[in-house]
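hey all, quick one before standup. I had two proteins in the batch that finished overnight and I want to keep them in one place so we stop losing track of which output belongs to which input. First protein below, input sequence then structure tokens straight from the run.
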Amino acid sequence: MRQRICIYKGAIKMVEEIKEIKEKHQGMWLAIKVTERDKYNKPIKGEILASARTHHELHIELEDPNVYETYAGELPVKAVLF
């Protein structure tokens, strides 16, 4: 079975601006460890932990309240969010 989720274990961790992470991973669901927030508590910097084609795959693999799950791009019209 082909793996649908990419987990960045063992990779060199690099803190980046979240907008830059999203630009690099267009069209993917991302799990990002937040390292910095703005004055409104919005995540602005972090380290990518995993990426997947669907939110469900990502969420099941990384069910962790300290991980920011986001979509890199415009949300698909037929997306099921939970």
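OK second protein, same deal, sequence then tokens:
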Amino acid sequence: MDDYTSITKNNLEERFGMTTDGIYHAHQPIYGYRTTKGSASGISRYMITRSILNAVNGYNFNTFIDIGGAEGYTANLVREIFHAQVKSTDLSENACKMAKAIFNIDAIPADIHNLPFSDSEFDIVLCSETLEHVTDYKRAIVELLRITKNVLIITVPHESQKIVDQNIKSKIPHAHIHYFDVNTLDYLKEMGYILKYEKTQSPLLIVPRVIAEGYKKPDTKLHFKIYNFFTPLFRKLFGIGTANWFTNIDSKMTKTFGFYQGITFIIEKNDKVNKKKGEPVKAEDFTGIKVNEYRVQSPVK
């Protein structure tokens, strides 16, 4: 494990050991929409999740693993919706412990550059919002393709090279240190893989979804003070129905206007992959799948 990965691991162990009032502080929306016991930006996470589930929905499969799967949210959704055998892995041991404790998902801590799985062990492999953090994303993709029998699904953010360069310069642990656009993985086509992509997270929806989410901002600037004043009203007016609506129109917005803040790549290993055509997955199909707040009996170690 290289030095940067080691530093990142320590950062993640702390992150996935956090609690709020004794409740595990979730990284993903495992407790549902709007919770004080988890990360904000719920709608953008739902947008990514909907894209992933629709990508998965295009194939017949039995086995699935989420690489960089945090506390097991997406793996659990795949198990619930598609009735597949699922596993998860994360650089953080604490994240893997939470996946087992909360969802009863087998999760093995591992470095993405050297995964402890056999060649072609899983029908579908997912790596979501992870490659932007790793030391060598191309080496990581080699490993992901090695353990994939049929399909590799990757999601990454699309942000400016300037932001990425600043993150590298500042040496921020677990920062976004790689720039991705829709052409970044085109080199895989030359290697014989079939590559498709979907743009996600329309920037045109940022302001309305932030208003709808109604999370107060810890900032003293005037516009944030005004926003914070109205957040109780926003939360009453805009509930899960609004979140579902934004989630469902996201792909139409990115297709219509072209602007995007995220990408879902779908990589098929060959043209013999067992495909299917199912009904599109909508936000309503998964945003209601959640667990009760998980009380940590003792500090995660």
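Flagging for whoever picks this up: The chain has a mean pLDDT of 94. The longest strand covers residues 148-157.
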